[in-house]
Amino acid sequence: MNKEAEAYKTAYARERAARLEAEQLLDDKSRELFLKNQQLEASNTRLKEQHNALVRNEKLATLGTLSAGVAHEINNPLAFVYSNLGSLNGYIGGYQKLLQMVQCWQADEQLSPQQAEALSQLIEAEDLVFISEDITGLLADSQEGLDRLKDIVQNLRRFAHSQDTDWEDVDVTDGLESTLKILNSQLKNTVTLEKHFAELPMVPGKANELNQTFLNIIVNACHAMKDTERPLLRIETRKEEDEVLVQITDNGCGMDEAVLKSLFDPFFTTKPVGEGTGMGMSITYSIIKNHQGRLKVASKPGVGSRFSIYLPLKRSESANKDTLSDPQDLTEEPV
Ligand SMILES: Nc1ncnc2c1ncn2[C@@H]1O[C@H](COP(=O)(O)OP(=O)(O)OP(=O)(O)O)[C@@H](O)[C@H]1O
Ligand SMILES: [Mg+2]
Questions:
Q1: Rounded to whole angstroms, how far apart are CA atoms 152 and 141?
Q2: Helix (H, G, I), strand (E, B), or coil: what is residue 165?
Q3: Are 172 and 205 in contact (CB under 8 A)?
Q4: Of 154, 218, 220, 256, which is best to mutate to test ligand 1, by the most ligand atoms within 8 angstroms of its C-beta?
Q5: DSSP letters along 81-109, please?
Q6: Is the CB of 216 under 6 A from ligand 1?
Q7: What tens digit of pLDDT does each residue of 116-151 get?
Q8: In DSSP terms, which residues pair with 246 in a beta bridge?
Q9: Does ligand 1 have an atom closer than 6 angstroms to the CB of 262?
Q10: What domains can you pick out in the chain, each with its CATH number?
Q11: What does the longest C-alpha to C-alpha distance in the chain come to?
């Protein structure tokens, strides 16, 4: 009996040891599997991000070439329509004066009855009085349309040429101040402006392009705040390690995920036809990318948006970092 119990005990101990070993093995393998899975997920996310960045860059490069061609094609006819409209504006005054003079002669009865009758018929048949009144407005509208077209062509050209190189030392504070000066009339009396400018080192770049990005972001902020009760625009700058940070925050309508996802796509706009071309943010993106900088966007519908531009203090020969985080990661902490 004792022998039997002893054998049973040994068998039990052996079985227990084997079970524990198997359990430990299972545990180790599961942990290994879990870690592998995590690594796989991380590299999958990285791959997706790189893929998105590649697609984005490819899209922008193609669009750059396309924009340059379109801008060039439109620019020539635009130039002569512009010039002709200017001449037409000058000519039309003379005809209006002529009509007024003829009408005066008619009123003063200085014409023979036949001449007066013929003139009346002509003026009525051709609706000359109405045309003379309407033509000034028509010309002004056409001029406005042409100005808008000129802006679009200029934007397309800027977009296409943002890859050229001739770098200078840029004073970011100066750039922000002069951009704010241009926007003075838009901001004045309506928007409270808070400036928190730190002393900054110069950054390598192109002043006009950087000013363009500040302008694009601030103009968008103003549009977003048009229904805000107390619109507040906060612009902050500071040096952060080897970068200069410019942060532009508004308390406007904010953006939902769908808008955030397409924000930097060329021609994406939520504005009515004729009001926005949807080029502002894609130009901003390509300029920051060209400066080897980074762009972060935080936004919350109904609360506001914050754009953070990071500009490096030194240009690197082999910069390969992504300008934007994946759209899903665009939302930092709420504003
Ligand atoms: N600060 C902001 N707050 C809320 N929405 C914004 C803000 N900035 C941009 N957006 C959204 O992003 C869209 C794209 O902006 P983008 O500047 O590229 O084009 P746009 O302003 O519509 O036209 P434009 O070419 O005239 O600048 C805007 O239509 C708007 O919906
Ligand atoms: Mg815009």
A1: 17
A2: coil
A3: no
A4: 220
A5: HHHHHHHHHHHHHHHHHHHHHHHHHHHTT
A6: yes
A7: 899 999 999 999 999 999 999 999 999 989 988 888
A8: 237, 309
A9: no
A10: 10-161 (no CATH), 168-330 (3.30.565.10)
A11: 151
